[in-house]
Amino acid sequence: MAESKESNYKLSAVQTGSLVGQKAVDVKYADVAIQFMQEHDAETPLISPEQERKLNRKLLWRVLGLTFLINLIMYMDKATLSYSSISGFWEATGLNQNKYNNVNTVFYVGFIVGQVPGTYLIQRLPLSKLIAAICFFWSLVIFLHCAAFNYAGVIVLRFFLGFFEAASIPILTTTNGMFLSLHVRESTQPIFYASCMASPIPIGFISYGVLYSKASIGDWRVLNIIIGGLTFFLSIFVYFYYPNNPIEANFLSTEEKVWTIRKVHGTTHASIEQKHFKREHAIEAFKDPISYLICGFFLLQQLANNLTYQQNLLYEEMGGLNNLNSTLVSVAGAGFAVVWSVTACIFMVFFPNKTCFTIIWTTIPALVGSIAAVALPLSNSIGELAAITLASLSFGVGWICAFGLAQTTAGSSYTKRLVRNAMVLAAYSISNIISPQIWQSRNAPKYVPAWIVQIVLSFTIAPALIGVVWYILSVRNRVRSAELNEREKTGLIKDDEGNEIEVDIATLDLTDLEDKTFIYPL
């Protein structure tokens, strides 16, 4: 049996204010895991190496596996418009290239509008019920695409699809952060994002089969019915099996819950969950220059994001590829993207604390592919195919790593993490509102202005901003490490009776600027 330990969450025998210099907060503003840990921490032994391996496997399958599945289907929902465009949807609804661009823009208008209510609801509602509701409304909107018959109707549908999606990525990444240790979370971020880049594989094969069906109601309607149905069944599954937090996770034993919370507190120095919105932490998020550097990365990098929706059209305009073959090329490209994500994951497993560096080096294929796409003639179809694949399906690894960086560098504060999430997703939305508009039909078939924007802003300046983030946080880490006082790593929770609980400072729900013992993961 593993040895027992003294609890880090026990009631202290001192009165409020007697431990001078220690951070103290009221218990209602601390981590929601405090009460659970008070009851079970002392009686739970230290985890053995074998138990830790078993628990990590369970968390990866049950938590990361579930968030991966939701993200995969979410991106299949989003991609239905691209695949519908080659199966008669444009003709049925009166779309053309510029109207298609506008429809993609409106999706992100809905996405940015949804940030405020989404951020509020994440901190107020159980995450399982919220993500289940989002999945249900996704399915409803996808089904309604079957009834679309004009441009105005498509605009409305895409707005609401973006609106309902707004809170999904913060929910999924927040859930991963509640259950996974810092190293596991960072190293598996590319795997999580592979769900986005892998989405062309299942939807590509589904679309390929649908194009052969020649259905009387229209191939694009059949596609939307299939994808909408998958999303509806996902909403039912998620309602019953999505965990709100480790404390309420039915698939974990009491010991496993304690071990999970200990690992998260000890490695991420972040709270599990905090349902009180802290105004001062929100203000700090808006004042912190790191927030704006990361937002700048999203604003510039995501100018390239519409390329993933344009690739099927680009394949068609190259000539020599019909609808069926362009779909298969998309599937092959997605396979490359998954391999690239796994490569990044392996790198981060063996070289921990290299998130900033990973964001930079994983952008290189997109930069090279974009330059090649501009330089090569359209007659070089093999070269163009390779260039488009490199450019459109590799930079997503940097996107999700940057999103993780925005969270892990905010300290233990739940509010600051959520507010910064909203900030970076607002920047992401603004960029994606602009992105479709750089693909104007007058620039066909090479679209040189769009490629130049991506080369300069998305794949050169954007990763350079992450280099600036790394430099600033490295300087902060050196100063903090030199001045670190071990006593400052503990804090006080004050209950309603004036008693104090001496706890790890990570449970106080402090920001990175409030907690001077916080060392930034880089």
From TrEMBL:
MF annotations from Gene Ontology: cysteine transmembrane transporter activity
Pfam families: MFS_1
Bilayer-spanning residue ranges: 59-76, 130-152, 159-179, 191-211, 223-242, 328-351, 358-379, 385-406, 418-439, 451-473
InterPro entries: MFS (IPR011701), MFS_trans_sf (IPR036259)
Coiled coil: none
Principal subcellular localization: membrane
Membrane-protein topology: Multi-pass membrane protein
Cellular localisation: Membrane
GO cellular component: membrane
Record's keyword terms, sorted: Membrane, Transmembrane, Transmembrane helix, Transport
Name recorded for this polypeptide: MFS general substrate transporter
Upper classification of the organism: Eukaryota, Fungi, Dikarya, Ascomycota, Saccharomycotina
